[in-house]
Amino acid sequence: MTAAALALTEVGKIYRTASGPVQALDGIDFRIAEGEFLSILGPSGCGKSTLLSLASGLEFPTSGTVEQAGRRIDRPVTDIGIVFQTDVLLDWRRVLDNVMIQPQIRGLDLKAYEQKARDLLALVGLAGFEDKYPYELSGGMRQRVSICRALIHNPPLLLMDEPFGALDALTREQMVMELHQLWLRERKSVMFVTHDIQEAILLAQRVLVMTPRPGRIAEIVEVDLPFPRRPETMESRRFVEIVAHVRHLFERHGVLKKY
Ligand SMILES: Nc1ncnc2c1ncn2[C@@H]1O[C@H](COP(=O)(O)OP(=O)(O)OP(=O)(O)O)[C@@H](O)[C@H]1O
């Protein structure tokens, strides 16, 4: 049996602060299989970003273990790609050079990776934009560049922290479908953090629903919808049922009010 791309076992996280300890996570136990897309859905402050920090080795659990591909994480992990809510592109570098930062930092064969960077940019519809500067791009285009930068070194695991949160609703829907197409092609393991119930379900094979702080797992919901998913998938009876189930979980945990 191959090891999970990411495995958290009985993870707890307590931050020590000037005003006392803050329990951010409690009893978190889940795995992301190789090639699986898992959404993490939860209210503000439930510990979603903390989970990402643990998965990338920027923070360590107070209790329990975090493993990537069977290896316990005890230092910042390099074998991952991360996409944040803001695109964090370097304004003084052209699009291609922004994507090439990763191979440059990692000391990889720049010639080979330049072709890969161009291929990835073409894949997300940015062929012809290689020499533009970030200020010449729309928000959606900038986030596409960020996704290329996260994928260029071919990491097995992609961590995404509300990557479309700063985009307008229409661009966001477009980006969700593009990410889905990309995932179907590349089949990376993905941990996708979001506040958005529909987005979480549309993209994922399973949705991990969190409780308010201290973040615990309310339920891991199987999304048994066929692939490829499309905008119309959101109108299907099964999709609507899963949304209702997740809303019900949030009502039960006091995140959403019942009307
Ligand atoms: N470095 C830190 N030091 C102290 N407390 C922290 C730290 N990081 C997070 N916390 C606390 O831990 C809890 C979880 O925070 P976290 O940022 O992981 O939540 P989140 O679900 O990502 O929130 P949001 O959706 O609003 O970004 C919060 O109460 C937060 O104040």
UniProtKB/TrEMBL annotation:
Belongs to the ABC transporter superfamily. Residues 6-237 form the ABC transporter domain. It holds the Pfam family ABC_tran. Keywords: ATP-binding, Nucleotide-binding, Transport. This is NitT/TauT family transport system ATP-binding protein. GO terms for molecular function: ATP binding; ATP hydrolysis activity. Coiled coil: none annotated.
